[in-house]
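Q: Could you fold this chain for me?
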Amino acid sequence: MTGGYGLVVKPAAQRALAETLPPAAAFAAWEFINGPLREAPRRVGKPLLEPLLGDWSARRGFLRVRYRVDDAKQLVTVVDIAHRSDIYHPRRA
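A: Sure. Below is the predicted structure, expressed as structure tokens.
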């Protein structure tokens, strides 16, 4: 991967990739994050509304990648990765 935005992966997204998601889904999500998402984060996703205003969501099969874009710093922060039915709700402890 050359050029594009820098990348920060928050702990919830790290857990999803390492523990929660099936290996094939985690691999596909990581390939998407490290490729198209870093290259053009606004093109591959959509902005979310309240209460997640400021976050974006991108689709990868049954998964959603929730992230934030900082154009000034050229940085994408991946907040979480989860099934589409779970990604827009706060995680339970």
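A (continued): The first strand starts at residue 6 and ends at 9.
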